[in-house]
């Protein structure tokens, strides 16, 4: 796997993103830039627009207006090919654990001998070496999510989007995922992750974005957003208050 310094990390920018439905606004993000050195955590109450934003950034949803720029270029096929996304419910192929990784590596044109070594390294990275031949569909929730992340990392993305990857996992499984996320980040992958877990944000985030009502109400260094938030919405969210 490549080893990039924080300075070479690919930047991501959303400009004038808008999505409306039935006369209302689902997403309204004038400008949002992710160009810092470590993981970005997106927080906010249910329905705040976190998943919509992530899907726009990954090109899964076309906004009504605005654009996403990656490393200065508009999001097109070449940029999307440099991104990967992992969802709350891992989507795995009906194959063995190793087969799921092999599928991705083969599609990337990697020859068989190299694939074997790469699969072994990835499985070791995710603590799944002893599960290589097991059906991916029979993995526990935590193991399945680790495999989903390994499969995403097998594509060597510049940017990895994670949409609440640990919301269904116990604390130990959550920490295992967090270690993988931090390792990927240290290797130069830009991490953009949605979470409801404020403790997780404190453990992982270099910067944090707080969303409410389709808008980013605050974005900055995690230490500021999580410890001394400027917006009332962030203060109430962090205090466990009801935000409507
Ligand atoms: N395809 C769609 N058509 C209409 N409304 C949508 C669509 N997708 C999302 N929405 C609405 O947009 C709003 C934001 O949804 P989104 O899933 O982004 O929220 P979220 O912040 O990720 O919430 P949660 O924390 O519950 O996952 C919600 O009110 C949702 O109902």
From TrEMBL:
Extract one GO molecular function annotation from the record: ATP hydrolysis activity
A GO cellular component annotation in the UniProt record? plasma membrane
- Residue intervals of the ABC transporter domain: 10-238
Name of a matching Pfam family: ABC_tran
Q: Which domain of life is it from?
A: Bacteria
Q: How does the protein associate with the membrane?
A: Peripheral membrane protein
Source species: Ruegeria marisrubri
Looking up InterPro entries in the UniProt record yields: AAA+_ATPase, ABC_transporter-like_ATP-bd, ABC_transporter-like_CS, MetN_ABC_transporter-like, P-loop_NTPase
Q: Where does the protein end up?
A: Cell membrane
**Listed name of the protein:** ABC transporter ATP-binding protein
Identify its protein family.
Belongs to the ABC transporter superfamily.
């Amino acid at each position: 796997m490549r080893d990039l310094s924080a300075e070479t990390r690919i930047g991501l920018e959303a400009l004038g993103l808008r999505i409306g439905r039935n006369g209302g606004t689902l997403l309204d993000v004038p400008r949002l830039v992710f160009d810092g050195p470590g993981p970005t955590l997106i927080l906010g109450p249910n329905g705040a627009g976190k998943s919509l934003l992530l899907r726009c950034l990954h090109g899964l949803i076309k906004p009504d207006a605005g654009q996403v720029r990656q490393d200065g270029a508009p999001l097109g096929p070449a940029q999307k090919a440099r991104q990967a996304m992992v969802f709350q419910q891992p989507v795995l192929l009906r194959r063995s654990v190793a087969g799921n990784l092999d599928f991705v590596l083969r599609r990337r044109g990697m020859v068989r001998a190299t694939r074997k070594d790469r699969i072994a390294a990835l499985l070791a990275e995710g603590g799944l070496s002893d599960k290589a031949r097991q059906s991916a569909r029979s993995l526990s929730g935590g193991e399945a999510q680790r495999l989903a992340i390994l499969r995403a990392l097998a594509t060597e993305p510049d940017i990895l989007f994670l949409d609440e990857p640990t919301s269904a996992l116990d604390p130990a499984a959550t920490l295992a995922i967090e270690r993988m996320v931090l390792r990927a980040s240290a290797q130069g992958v830009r991490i953009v992750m949605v979470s409801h877990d404020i403790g997780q944000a404190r453990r992982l985030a270099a910067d944090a974005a707080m969303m409410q009502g389709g808008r980013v109400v605050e974005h900055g260094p995690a230490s500021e957003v999580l410890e001394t938030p400027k917006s009332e919405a962030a203060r109430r969210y962090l205090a466990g208050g009801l935000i409507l």
